[in-house]
Structures are given as C-alpha cells and as structure tokens.
Design goal:
By secondary structure, the protein is of the alpha/beta class. It has one domain: Thymidylate synthase/dCMP hydroxymethylase domain (Thymidylate Synthase, Chain A), CATH 3.30.572.10. Helix content is 39%, strand content 27%. The protein has six helices and ten strands, in the order βαββαααββββββαβα. Strands 1, 2, 3, 4, 7, 8, 9 and 10 form an eight-stranded mixed sheet that branches. Strands 5-6 form a two-stranded antiparallel ribbon. A hairpin with a 2-residue loop joins strand 5 and strand 6. Helix 1 runs antiparallel to helix 6 and helix 2 crosses helix 5. The mean pLDDT is 91.
Length: 236
C-alpha cells in the first residue's frame, strides 16, 4: 500500500495534484463490494491545503460547478435530512445530537478547546447490509476534527473511501464553505474575528475508477500546460 503526502496551494491545486499522483503512482485495486465493483487505481494519502479559501474553489476542468458545490455545502453538510436521501453528512451531524450547534457554543465559551470533533460514521455502519435488496453504503466522510490555532479554524477530515475524480473537488470545496459558515456563526455569537485556516485530509483509499481513466488522463496530461498558464495569470 503506497502512502503519499500532498501539499497544495488551494483546492483546485489539491485536486490536480491528487489525480496526477494516483494516475502515475497509484496501486491497482479490484473493488469486490461497495457502491461500484470495478478496477481502480488508489493511494493511501494525506492532503494539506494551505489556502483553501482562495477562489476559485473548483478547478476549471473539474466535473462539478459552484452551483453544485454550494448545494453540497449548505444542504448536504450544513443542514439536516434531505427527503430523497437515506442520510446526509449533515443529518448525521445534526441528529440525535446537534454537533454543529454544540461546537459553535463550545468555541464561543472556550476557543482553546481541542476536543471538538464532528463524528459522522456510526458503530452500526460496520454491518454489511441494511436490507435484503440494497447494499449498505456507510458514509465516505467519517469525521471532521476542528481546532482554532493562530486565530484560524483548521479542519482535519478523514474519508474512508474517496472518489478522487468526481467526488474530491466538490468535497473539499464544500467543506471549505462549511468551515466559512461555521466560523461566521462563531464570530457572530462570540464577537470574535477568527478566520478559516488550513484543510487537511486523510484517506486510506483515494481512488479513480476504470471508467474514469480516460477523463483523468485527459485532465492530467493537457492540464499541465493549461494549469501553468492559469496559475501564471492568477499570480501576475
């Protein structure tokens, strides 16, 4: 099992570097059970994003747009249940204990607390099946850990399994928006001026599916020159 550490400037940079690393150095893994039975390329990896608040949040080649990212952040992460979904990350964080509300209250009381962790995965998720006709789909995002350091709210997140091509760009951008909403509410209630800080992610199985190989190749190879031009324009 190959383990890789990736340091990225912002969210688009993180997505591109992850795809590049998996494409060229990923282990081949045959998925035998899960949301999709397929050959994959995967890595056990960590990502440190130094400036996740930098815009744009989504790479120009990513298969998602900001309309979807905003929906994901505010409905799937921040809010509770969605009628057509069995659960959302937000419903897991809001019920039976409203962890988001408790986190806000705790940081208003004591900003130096190191114990404020949102837990999404439940013990019963270890079971293989919910019903006889539907495979069990435990949450990919297992936890979001938080800490205020240097007047910045830093988040550390763990994904047990992570679709690097289609899921990762929306996930990291959405979690940044979630963090901005969290910080805004803490500042409003506590009369503080904290800002969002780093995003750090860990995943034991960050992967691309075989059906995505051509799209990833098209993103990584031509994207090298295109991203250099884009970053050059951004930094000029």
């Amino acid at each position: 099992m190959r383990y890789v550490k990736i340091k990225a400037f912002d969210c688009p940079d993180a997505w591109y570097k992850v795809l590049n690393e998996i494409w060229y150095n990923g282990d081949r893994f045959e998925v035998g059970y899960g949301s999709e039975v397929s050959e994959t390329k995967k890595l056990n990896l960590s990502i440190e994003i130094a400036n996740p608040a930098n815009r744009p949040l989504v790479d120009f080649m990513a298969p998602c747009d900001m309309k979807y990212v905003n929906w994901y952040a505010l409905k799937y992460l921040w809010s509770g249940a969605i009628e057509e979904e069995t659960y959302t990350y937000g419903s897991r964080m809001r019920e039976p204990v409203d962890q988001v509300e408790e986190a806000i209250k705790r940081y208003v009381e004591e900003r130096r607390d190191r114990q404020v962790t949102f837990v999404i995965r439940l013990p019963e998720d270890i079971k293989k099946s919910i019903t006889s006709h539907k495979k069990h789909e435990p949450p990919c995002l297992s936890l979001i850990d938080t800490e205020i350091l240097g007047n910045q709210m830093n988040l550390t997140c763990y994904f047990r399994s992570w679709d690097a091509y289609a899921g990762l760009p929306a996930n990291i951008a959405g979690i940044q928006i979630f963090n901005e909403a969290l910080v805004s509410e803490i500042n409003r209630r506590g009369n503080m001026d904290i800002e969002t800080g780093k995003l750090i992610f860990h995943s034991k199985n960050c992967h691309i599916y075989e059906r995505q190989y051509k799209m990833v190749e098209d993103t990584v190879k031509p994207g090298e020159d295109r991203r250099r031009k884009m970053l050059g324009t951004k930094n000029s």
